[in-house]
Amino acid sequence: MRWLLLSATFICGIVLSQQGGDVVLTKEERAGVVKFYRAKMRWSEEMSAAGHPDSALKVVEALLLLGPPTRQLEKELLALRKRLRREWMRSRLIDAYLAPQKRVFTEGDKIVVRLVLASRSDKEVVLLQNRPGEKEKVAAINVFRRCFLEDGTVRVEEVHGMAVTKSRQVTLREGQAWVRELLFDTPEFPRNVLAAYKYLVAGTVNIQLMSGKERVGRLLPLDGVEFMVLPKEAKRYADKPFKWLVEGLKAAAKGEEWGREALFYGGMLVGGEKRADAVAALISWLPRLPRQSALTATAVLSHITNKPFGPDIDAWLNWWKGAK
User: Fold this and answer.
1) In the CATH hierarchy, which fold is given to the domain comprising 94-230?
2) Where are the domains of the chain?
């Protein structure tokens, strides 16, 4: 809440600048304070619309605590606080999220991602149905994927959108959840080419709820989730992937063919806690690798860092110099 301290200092500075008696703001000072308040009020409304009414409410409470410079602004803040409190209560009724498999090796025909609507209330929450027996859309899902290839190129693809429906009313008690499995076809991997897919799944839930006698509507954003889809031969690198990455870099530098596969799949499987080490290792070995292996290393760098340099080896080296 650094901005609150700054604003309090600003307002107190105006007070201390006056010598005795009631504080009278100049026209410019008052306009500046009002502008600041209105900017924070707009931000609060945007945060609430984005699904974070708790954060928005804290900001409005802080603005009221500081003391609005005009009565009109105070009235608007009180009305906004009332509205945000109502949204905050609604937001506590239910939680919506996507739960993917962390890694998928293409041994099956489908990729499974679960949409979960979980009760957060100690009272019964009813997922209402406007037309019983008919399919009713409750969520819109978007799916994107990127394909990382051994030559360092990255392809971005929009897979498709998906509507999630339900056809009956559902009652959730505390701790219960309604779950729907979303199924996607596994991608076709090119033959004799190292390749890996990263999926991004996101969307929104739009649902009518009943809690007690109160009927509320909820538009809930679903935070995007990412997961890797790899060919089944990559599964052998899932155990200690960072070790495989390093060993692969060493082997590739000697011209050993298996090294490229090990550094590629090992790098694609490295977990979050080792990603910084993986980037450092890849960059340090990049100038020493044969060109084809170096391009493969850039594919792994693209996956880990999300930087747009693709197979441009010099761009990666220059980026690293600037980042150090």
Assistant:
1) Immunoglobulin-like (2.60.40)
2) 2-91, 94-230, 234-323
Q: Are 119 and 174 in contact (CB under 8 A)?
A: yes
> 10 Å Cβ neighbour count for 267?
30
pLDDT in tens, 204-225: 998 888 877 778 777 788 889 9
Tens digits of residue pLDDT in 157-214 = 887 789 999 999 999 988 899 999 999 888 889 889 999 999 999 999 988 888 777 7
Indicate the pTM of the whole model. Answer: 0.70
Dist CA 312 CA 295 (whole Å): 8
* Reported confidence tier of residue 240, pLDDT bands at 50, 70, 90: very high
- The owner of tokens 């889809």 is 229
**Which burial class, exposed, middle or buried, applies to 155 when counting CB atoms under 10 A from its CB (0-12, 13-18, 19+)?**
exposed
SS3 of 205-267: the string is EEEEEEECCEEEEEEEEEEEEEEEEECHHHHHHCCCHHHHHHHHHHHHHCCCCHHHHHHHHHH
